[in-house]
Amino acid sequence: MKPLNQNKMKLYRFDDKMQLHRVRVYPYILVGICLIGLLSISSSPKHAEYEVPPVFLETYTGEEPFNFKVFKQFIVDCGIKYPDIVLAQAIQECNFNSKIWHENHNPFGMKVAKSRNTTAIGVNRGHAQYKNWRMAVLDYALMQAVYAKKVKSRKGYYKYLEHYAEDPGYIQKIKKHVRDHKGFGLSDDYLDDL
After folding, report:
1. Can you list the pairs that 32-35 forms with residues at least 24 positions away whose Cβ atoms lie under 8 Å?
2. Where are the beta strands (DSSP E) in 23-166?
3. Helix (H) or strand (E) holding 84
4. What is the average per-residue pLDDT within 131-139?
5. Are strands 127-129 and 12-14 parallel, antiparallel or unpaired?
6. Which residue of 87, 115, 121, 179 sits 20 to 30 Å from the alpha carbon of 51, by its own alpha carbon?
7. Domains along the sequence of the chain with CATH
8. Residue 24: its pLDDT value, please?
9. Bridge partners (DSSP) listed for residue 129
10. Residues 144, 170: contact at Cβ < 8 Å?
């Protein structure tokens, strides 16, 4: 029997059939760091030794004016897979002008998660409601970490999204948005979708 090497410890879990599986913690760590950062910023006292500028605090309260470039960068910073496809989903789902967007701060038309952790604070109009759009993006990151963790390609991600919406033409509409916006300047990978 080999001695346990502390530098190479890995996490494992048992499934329903008592099979041992390795747990990949990197997506969970990334989302956790984002959530801890948001919580520590939003809960920091106003009269602390270092006072957070009010403009920075507003970005986490849902009071900031929406800026697509900031939205796009936040998606990238959260480590969301295929950010150009996700941006196209936001355009398809709400175009930043729907009632779900304005009332729920929900750019993706997401429903409330029932079997995973969520950042949603409730339900409105049958869709998840968030404190602000940043919390919706973090919830999307949580969704990807749980349900799309095995997706390894753009083609695979489009296949995964086939069940995201009821519209049978959803994937073609998403691809059109990505194409029309030239991959949102994130990469030329969208050319493979043609």
Report:
1. 34/77, 34/78, 34/138, 34/141, 35/119, 35/138
2. 122-124, 127-129
3. helix 83-93
4. 95
5. unpaired
6. 121
7. 11-186 (1.10.530.10)
8. 64
9. 122
10. no
Distance (Å, whole) CA 119 – CA 117: 7
Highest mean pLDDT among 63-77, 111-125, 179-193: 111-125
User: What is the model's pTM?
Assistant: 0.68
- Taking a C-beta distance cutoff of 8 angstroms, is the pair 113, 135 a contact? no
- Residue 65 pLDDT: 82
Cβ neighbors of 38 (< 8 A, separation 6 or more) are 60, 134, 135, 138
Burial readout 1-30 (b: 16 or more C-beta within 10 A, e: otherwise): eeeeeeeeeeeeeeeeeeeeeeeeeebeeb
Q: Which three-class secondary structure state does DSSP give residue 20?
A: strand
| Rounded CA separation 111/22 (Å) | 29
